[in-house]
Amino acid sequence: MIGLFSRPASARLRLVYLAVALLGFLAASSAPTPLYQLYQHAWQFSPATLTLVFAVYALSLLAALLTVGSLSDYLGRRPVIFVALLLESVAMLLFIQAESVPWLLAARLLQGFATGMATSVLGAALLDTDREQGPLVNSLAPLLGMACGALGTSVLVEFAPWPLRLVYGVLLALFVVLALLVWRLPESVSRQPGALRALRPSLLVPPQARGAVWRMLPVNIAVWALGGFFLSLGPSLVREVSGLGSSLVGGALVATLTLSGALAIYRLRLRPAQQVLALGTGLLAGGVGLILLALHNASLVLFFAATLVAGSGFGAGFLGALRSTLPLAETHERAGLMATFYVLSYLAFCVPALAAGLMVRQFGLVATSEVYALVLVGLCAVAGVLNLPAMRGARSI
């Protein structure tokens, strides 16, 4: 494989490398999800602690986006990708050695920072490589990565030895190989002064993209809040609804959400951005409504069917949000806008899930899930109102 990069890399090979790297980081982010049940059984911690472990990852990721999110616009893409891969490799080693909740928190803390650094630089590098395919890969890779991480971990837990360590060893090998290969890629951004100034926490939204960011924000919050709930409390909820204790059920639930989202992205990739955003809003609201029905009927089959619909809305909403904002940035604004997009997204990813984890102790998991679902439907209604003028304008063109 190294030989492929010994001569100037084609755009296709750069896309493959960047997509695999982004997929790997997101697979690692969801890999612990099917293991939470095993960690809870081994170390006896509460759902609130579980969501704290999840939130530490997301908050650390946000810290990275706010500080080093636009660093590659000044230093170049390759060195930032390399450092992110190095930090992620150390995080995998911490997971392998984990023996208690503090170890798990430390691993997730470091992993979050590495992932935050990686998502902005890899997203920007994908746009540098191909402005047409870059947004599509940026949309597909995270969802496919989360599916691979959750489902792959579930399979290893059920059928392979070392359930709390093997998946991290596999991911560690991947990140080491990627770190060796990154220096074979051509650099797409020239160095420029201002790197230290860029480390000050800030959010960059170019003036030409601000209107699009406000319009996509409610549905983007709903999309990521749904994803955060599924990756933290989703397996526990489906276990309570179904009574099944297998890790495969929780992994299959996350995979259903993310794979249906990835399929929706692929099918809708050529549609206008505003149309995709509107469709995602409707599907997300409908899917969450069906999840409420599944909870009331304690139906596992309906729960998975509802997740398919909600997952389609997840993917369409994510694609619509990306395509309506990121192409509006210039070359040296892309990493900064990508960082801002992910800051907004991961705030929605962790804060509502953390609040839900705190509510579970007082109200129970099912009641908390019902309130959570109603809030998501409300966000979709707001998104529909905000995007109505833009949709009318698109139809008149």
From TrEMBL:
Keywords: Cell membrane, Membrane, Transmembrane, Transmembrane helix, Transport. It is found in: Cell membrane. It holds the Pfam family MFS_1. Residues 12-395 form the Major facilitator superfamily (MFS) profile domain. It is a multi-pass membrane protein. The chain crosses the membrane at residues 46-68, 80-98, 104-127, 139-160, 166-183, 217-238, 244-264, 276-295, 301-323, 335-359, 371-390. PANTHER family: MAJOR FACILITATOR SUPERFAMILY MFS_1 (PTHR23517:SF13), RESISTANCE PROTEIN MDTM, PUTATIVE-RELATED-RELATED (PTHR23517). This is MFS transporter.
